[in-house]
Each structure stands twice: as structure tokens, then as C-alpha cells.
Amino acid sequence: MQYHLARWMGAALAAAALCACASLEPVQTAQKMIGSPESAVRGTFGAPTETYQLAGGTSRWIYSKQPLGFDVYAADFDAAGNLVRFRQMLTEKEIYEARPGIWTKHDVAERFGLPREPVQYYPLMKREAWSYRLYVGAYQPAHFSAYFDDRGVLDRTMIIVDPLGGDGHDRSK
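== Transmembrane protein ==
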């Protein structure tokens, strides 16, 4: 009886460790899963916060850690439902690919997920702002904002560094 209990506990600890690795290093974990079916990705990372159909029968699953976290991950699948790419979306590189005057709210949501911070409207500018938390540089907390005109077209993006840190964690320890 004790042997079976010990074996069960060992299996439970191994499963917990796998989940911990997936949550601590999701990109590294997912890179090892390239080519895996959607069911394997769901089994490792859980249900996505959003899903989007992309061109050519491909799809994207968004895993948002917002508003308290600093990450939004995208899992891209081919038309057969196999993982082809997994990456952190809230990076300066991804943000600089945004196309003001061309992208719409749907394009921004497809790239970064829907905002989890309250949406702001600035009547004097006639702009709606979606805000996301991210790290820039050497783990400097910041806010990324996407501003939309009244037609829902991206007007501009902005990254503002938070000099106070914003999350109460001392990263120097």
C-alpha cells in the first residue's frame, strides 16, 4: 500500500514539476513542442485566453498573463493544427511591427490579445487607449499603449517606462 502511495506521490510531483517548468519557461518548453498537436499544447499550457483564425486556415492561441503579469504568449498552429511557433508578444520588436493607419483593433488583439487593463478614452484627442504591461531593456517595467481613432484604426503606439517599478518586486535580490 505504501509503495503505491509513494509511486502516486512521485507521479504527482513529476507532473507538478512539468507544469512549473511550463509556467516558468513557457517559450523554452514550447520550442520543444514544435510540431505537436493542439491537444498537447492545451495539456501543457491549459486553455488559451483567446483564439484567432488567421489566413490560410492557420490559427493563433493567446495566453495572456495580464493585467498583473508582464507577458502575452502566442501559440501559432498550421492548418493541420500543429504548433509551428510560440513566442512572447510583448517585446519591443513585436510592438514596432504595429502599423498605425493600417491596423485595426482586431489586428492589435490578434497580435497582443485583448487588453486586461481598463480601456481608456481621451475625449480631447478622440482616442481610445488599450494598455499592456511589459518589460523593456533589463527588466524595466513599462506600459505599452495602442491608441485608436473613432473608426477603430490604430493611430499610434507608445511605450512608457515605469520608473517606480509598478509591481512591488525588488528584482535585485
